[in-house]
Write a structure and sequence with these properties.
Blueprint (H helix, E strand, L loop, with lengths): L2 E7 L7 H9 L7 E7 L4 H11 L3 E5 L5 H14 L3 E5 L7 H7 L5 E3 L4 H13 L10 E5 L2 E4 L27 E3 L2 E2 L17 E2 L2 H13 L4 E4 L8 H14 L5 E6 L6 H7 L7 E8 L3 H7 L5 H14 L3 E8 L6 H12 L5 E6 L7 H4 L7 E2 L7 E3 L5 H19 L4 H11 L3 H14 L9 H14 L5 H14 L12 H9 L1 H7 L8 H4 L3 E6 L3 H7 L8 E10 L5 E7 H8 L1
Parallel strand pairs: 1-2, 1-3, 3-4, 4-5, 8-11, 11-12, 12-13, 13-14, 14-15
Antiparallel strand pairs: 5-6, 6-7, 9-10, 16-17, 18-19, 19-20
Helix pairs in contact: 2-3, 6-7, 7-8, 13-15, 14-17, 16-17
Length: 582
Amino acid sequence: MKILLTTLNAKYIQTNLALRYLYESAYEYQEYMELKEFTINQEESYIYNEIIRGNYDIICISSYIWNISKVKALVADIKKVKDVIVILGGPEVSYDSEALIREYPYIDYIIRGEGEKTFYEIISLLISKKGQMDQINGITYRSKNQVVSTPDRASCRSLDDIPFPYRHFSPEKDRIIYYETSRGCRFNCSYCLSSINKGVRTLSLERVKEELSYFINREIPQVKFVDRTFNLNPKRCLKIIKYIQEIDKGKTNFHLEINGDLLDEEILEVLSTARKGLFQFEIGVQSTWERTIEAVGRKTDFKKLKKNVQKIYRYQNIHFHLDLIAGLPFESFDTFKKSFNDVYELNPHMLQLGFLKLLKGSRVRNEALEHLYCYQDKEPYEILSNKYISAIELVKLKMLEDILEKYYNRSGFQSTLKFVIKTNYENPFSFYDDFSEYWYQNGYHHMAHSKDALYDILLDFYIHRDFLDLALFKEFIMYDRMLNSSAASKSEGIDKETIHDILHNEIFRNTFLTRHQHLKVKELKKFIGYQLFEFNIHGNAKKNQKIVNEKNLCFFDYSNKDLWGQAFACSLTMAEIEEVKG
């Protein structure tokens, strides 16, 4: 008997944690099992061919809102040509499972909720004929033309009873490795499925330390914790963070989903000393409108969150994302503007603007009638409108989100965006709203654009709006281009002898190029770019100095980049250049 554990990930870089748990939980049957991962971007015929060629008897698929449509089509085709047992599991099939299995006769079994023990018992029965199907809790299946659901399975009491998911799988270095130290969430957010299962269970600290050492010793590039709130227990969080810093080898990045207002001074102090790039935080704000936060059960102290995030920003060693959700109860288009501006002004490295999805089993879906939610019938069940925000307003936010992704989250426009917003708009939302209207009116959304093209379109927009200081704006665009270039670009406005003299100067090296004091000028030029500006752009962008019409020569070190991916930069006035040459 051959068993396939598989799924369709959203991207190649992702790995599926659930499949690895199932494999390890049923490892005594490992001779029968094979684990293969595909993506939703691969040709459906390719996936179908690979599975048919495998000649499997049992196919187990992990199902989510991003892959369920393709999963349904895939197993329907497989069932037409092969007598195979199909088992589905995952959040997208754990709720309303009876209706699903009635509608799709090619599904034989659905595993509801936590699947490790359930999967083991099903495989034991199918292979070794151990037990009876109706005695296995947590499944829905078809028996003699009847749909049967056994009682829900209680969650495992101790996560230490579940095997390490990478025990027999060497993590691949070109993929994100997903890992958890806890399950469950004490919060009751109405849009999240984690709030359904009450209580939080954790791995023992001893086991966490052992497994973190496993990742760090293998120099895995990124480990992404899937704990719903990593710092739910501040003392436990602090111990893990300290341990990671103690054994850090400078290669691994850890992505944590944290609650910003639960960070205390002790944790912040420890974080301030972390290696740049060691940690990456995702902080869910969702909304700053108090009535909305109360309605969804989020209970966030935004003032404290803001204070903590501002501290993290000043450390300049932690890449952090802030999340917003459009379409929540009681939040109108106007109040969402406030939420957007509140979060934008915290300078996150990424501002993720999502749209409410009314997931099966979530409280917000059960409250749909109360708030007059209109949402997609099929996955991902995204909001179309509600009592507080119209369909056209949500479309406008979709347009805005497109621009936010291209210009803010993609990075490379920080100084230019800051300048144009500060000098021409009341707030960030007003700029993105205005620019997105221009973008769509001109049909730019119909095609893909290179980064160079994005700079050109932003310049065209500035000219179209007839804003003042066009020459200065062009300099900001040039500055951002240089900061985010991948090559050591050279300016034509300065002679090579001057550049050679500056790079050779000991004071300049000791002040700005401390990482490269040992290198010869010829070697430096391979990754040092330079550009002559008519204004003190660097001083304004980095030190908030008043903009003056004074020539500056900027140097860009492309071997030394910050958390935005920007090159380290420094600048010299013409007087300073003469002093260096002298």
